[in-house]
Amino acid sequence: MFQDPWVQDYDATSRLAQEIAENIHERNRQQRTGGNPAKINMTLRASLQKLKQNISLLKDGVLRASSSRRIMQAEADRRQNLIDDLLTKERQLNASFKGDISEPEPSRSTLMSEGAGGSRGAANPWLINETDETRGLSFGEIKQQQQRIIEAQDAGLDALAAVISRQKMMGQEIGNELDEQNEIIDDLAHLVDKTDDRIRNETRRVKLVETKSASCGMMVVIVLLLIAIIVVAVWPV
After folding, report:
1. Hey, how many other C-beta atoms are within 10 angstroms of the C-beta on 8?
2. Residue 180 to residue 182: CA distance in whole angstroms
3. What is d(CA 232, CA 227) in angstroms, rounded to the nearest whole number?
4. Which of 42, 46, 83, 109 could form a disulfide with 123 if both were Cys (CB 3.0 to 4.6 A apart)?
5. Residue 61 in 3-state DSSP?
């Protein structure tokens, strides 16, 4: 099943924080029993540096996902709260490593595993500084809860993508219809221009014919008058 890479990175960072807490506990035990904690101190310094880098990467991942709208604002806020919890845990671990405060209390998952007779191992990282929503849930149940949230967000994004796709298709269809209407309008405008030119040409022809008709009428009258004059002139009195 697909799992968000950010969730996987957070999972790994939480386990690292728990391992650091256990190593600090072991370092302190060695100091109390007169052992040499030099080697474990070197390991703790490297682990604390790695924890700081991982938290920084988690913060960048939330910012990128939120700015690109790959996650909803509610999920971004939830992830930021998880990061804030990790930052608090990091400060506590650094202070405990330097001996400023007592070592951190074992997490509920560690106490439960030891109380059940289980060996000390990787504790449930989701239960470090857990919220009321996850208190009482097992690691698997919390991961399932997170997966359901991610799936619901993916489904919402898919639905939004489908709506945007339909709107894009409608926009393309409207654009094509407008192009066809513009072509029809252009054809009508061309036809009107041609018709207007024909009307002008016919009007000029009619005027020319009228002018010629008037000229012919005058010629006929003049010819008739000449004939009448000649007839009168030659007619015997």
Report:
1. 10
2. 5
3. 9
4. 109
5. helix
- Sign for the CA dihedral angle at 152, 156, 157, 158 comes to positive
User: The tokens of 210 are what?
Assistant: 């009228």
Q: Which residue in 172, 171, 15 sits closest to 107, CA to CA?
A: 15
Q: Can you give the pLDDT of all 237 residues of the chain as single tens digits?
A: 556 788 999 999 999 999 999 998 888 888 888 888 888 899 999 999 999 999 999 999 999 988 888 889 888 899 999 999 999 999 999 998 887 544 444 444 443 343 333 444 434 444 445 556 655 666 667 677 778 888 888 788 888 888 888 888 888 888 888 888 888 888 888 888 888 888 888 888 777 777 776 777 777 878 888 887 887 777 765
121: helix, strand or coil: coil
How far apart CA 232 and CA 230 sit, in angstroms, is 5
Q: What is the C-alpha to C-alpha distance for residues 165 and 148, in angstroms, rounded to an integer?
A: 25
The residue assigned the tokens 């080697």 is 39
Which amino acid belongs to residue 49? Q
